[in-house]
Amino acid sequence: MFSAVESLMRTVKSLSRDPMGFLGLGLVVMFLLMAMLAPLISPFDPLKINVQSKFMEPSLAHWLGTDQLGRDTLSRIIYGSRTALSISLTATGLAGICGLLLGLVAGFGPRWLDNVFVLLFDSISSLPMIMFALAVITVLGPGTGTLIVVIILISAPGYARLIRAQTLTLKNSDFVLAEKSMGASSGRIILLHLLPNVVGPLVIILSMDIPVVIMLEAGLSYLNLGVRPPTPSWGNILYDGYTSIRSSPTLVIAAGAPLVLATLGFTFLGEGLRDALDPKLQLMSLR
Amino acid sequence: MNTQWKTNRRELLKLAGGTLAGLMTVPNMAWSADGDTLRLRIDADLQVLDPKSMIGGLDEIILRCTQISLIRFGDTREGNKTMNWGAEKIEWTSPLTIAFTLRDGLKWTNGFGPVTAEDVKFSYERIAGSDSAWAYQFEKLDHVEVIDARSGIIHLKQPFKPIWVISLPYYGGHIVCKAAVEKVGGSYTTELPAQCGPFLFDKWEQNQKITLIANPDWNGEKSDFSKIEIYIVQDDQAAQLAYEADAFDFTRLAVSAAKQVKAAMPKGAKLIEAQSTRYAWLTINMNSPQLSDLRVRQAIQYAYDGDAVLQGAYDGLTVRAAGVVQPGTNFAREKNHIATRDVEKAKALLAEAGIKDLKLNLVALTDSTTQTIAQIIQSNLGEAGITVEIQPTEDAAYWALGDKTKGDAYKTLELVLMNFAGGIDPTENLLWFRPDQIGIYNWSFFDSKEFEDLYQQGLVEQDDAKRKTIFNRMEDLMEDSGCFIFICFEPYLAIHDDNLQPVILADGHPNPTMFKKV
Fold first, then answer.
1. Do the domain assignments include residue B5?
2. What's the CA gap between B381 and B302, in Å, rounded?
3. Are B405 and B313 within one domain?
4. B188 is a domain residue
5. Which is higher by pLDDT, A1 or A223?
6. Percentage of residues in chain A with pLDDT exceeding 70?
7. Which domain holds residue B466?
8. Both B482 and B510 in a single domain?
9. Which of B235, B262, B361, B368 should one mutate to test binding to chain A, selecting the residue with the greatest count of A CBs within 10 A?
10. What is the mean pLDDT of chain A?
């Protein structure tokens, strides 16, 4: 426990020495707080329609104006962060767990099982991402649940391949062979020896994939294939903005800005974490 | 021989100039519109070009160019006047007969010879009494008598004056070549077996563009253009931007664009603002188990906020409809029975029906106006305790939903936002709600014998005052069934080059053959 806290502190300290990583951390924390405190900080109900106040310019009452149904844009952006982060974190997390389990089984299991899994991973990875997403949505119907399923199906094979490669390298290492010779079960070897060694790179990849998922969610919502109205999503706010870009450009800017910032934040944080956690880079910095 | 390649500025300019000139000679890569080409934008691709089974929209626009009808309409803004087209002479000879003589020199393509009265007979009789969506147009047709190659008499079962404006000018009234249609097995989809019109179907680039070229054998009134390009752009906003970038000469606009376009009219453009015959309503399917109780359907009617929809989706440019007959016309109904919103009444009706936590699915097309209406309705019904999930649906999938030939999905639809291009005679707008349209275009399962009887009376009644009473009663029945919320007749908004004089027909679609250069 002590070493985990120590490791975390070391990572944060390392991040603080990297300006971009620190900026990323700041942005991510900001969006996390925005999502968690949405009901407290939103000035208006994001779903409340008031057509008499549609397309209002930014003002003291409505800092980012209103949309085509008179809903407060700032409130929808704040609640949109909830949608973006809940979907991206849930989907990426679940995809990571699936990838981890499948990769460990493929790498440590018998050869024939490995071949089956590799064939499966490669088959899914070979499908064009957007086409595959559209096909799944057509079958299951649009919605938040479908979106999460789509993201898991798209991402998990990549993670599984990464874990499998790590596992294949580690399974013939001396400490694993020693455990085997002492009669340790496969479960014990996987859980106590392989898992802690393969999870680090996965965490870095997951953090760097979060912005991709945020963009995918926004893209599919923009196409009316993601989050259903009236739930605020940066993607569907962007779509509403697009349809009225000539009369009210504020909406597009307001929805585009958090997308850009969230993407930059998670990307910088991911890169910062990679630098902080990579032992080779740490070694180089010590030299 | 010196084969050394020398590059200098002059050579480079020469090469660029030569390449540019070469590219300009390739028609598809021309950088500016040819003055003889009319470029229109339509929002959905063609589906079926056989008049018997066409859907409408672009199908109909193409047929206006490639097929003839006995008569045709003029611009709806000039009173929907009819004029001879394929017919040299056509007149009522009695309340039950119309005599016609085809123009001389009308010729089918693909070597099928001249257009004959036999073709007219075949075209009308194949639709009458069939399962075609346009069969209503020939419901009172008894038969077509062929007198000679170019003359015939249309015989009706009962006096039916609306045939002149419902059937003869367009849709089912397009004449097809009997020999050609029989040769392809009696029906066709996207390949016209024989054409006779001012233009010929030249090229179809799916979901992108249709090209029509002038028919060299056409001996009738010539168009001002030798080529028509119809671009498929679903999104109104994209179309507006494309228009401003000079990609088209004519496009319809979203109603929401009115204010912005008026405030900053593009140079050399003209705006058309008119009342359209396109009527919008909310279908409430009484066949759905959740909506089988009249009180639940009425609760939806009471929860609906008509003013919010008109303001939010149409910028207040139109008024609430009290039926499917155009407001402001002689036959229009004065007002709805449930004209004002009453959320408490809606809640009370739901409680009385013992309904709690009602969840309904609302199918809506993906265009911005329909999506805006859907979200307002979602919010309205939410206030009455009804949760609505919006299902945005693309055009092709949408029309399959209520089609009984495409599975059983039509039986369990719940709420659907619909809009149809209407006609001139009220019967054209009312007929879609007849019992025999269930599973075709009547998606609410509204099944009223009285409605059908009144419809039949309305077809043959000659007295306008009596017709008004009939049509108003039909709309009462529709509203009282709880199956409909009448939204409005949509405003028509289009933009075009100011050196062009477009012609819009009563159904809200253009007739490109009548567009003029000014």
1. no
2. 9
3. yes
4. no
5. A223
6. 95
7. 279-489
8. no
9. B368
10. 88
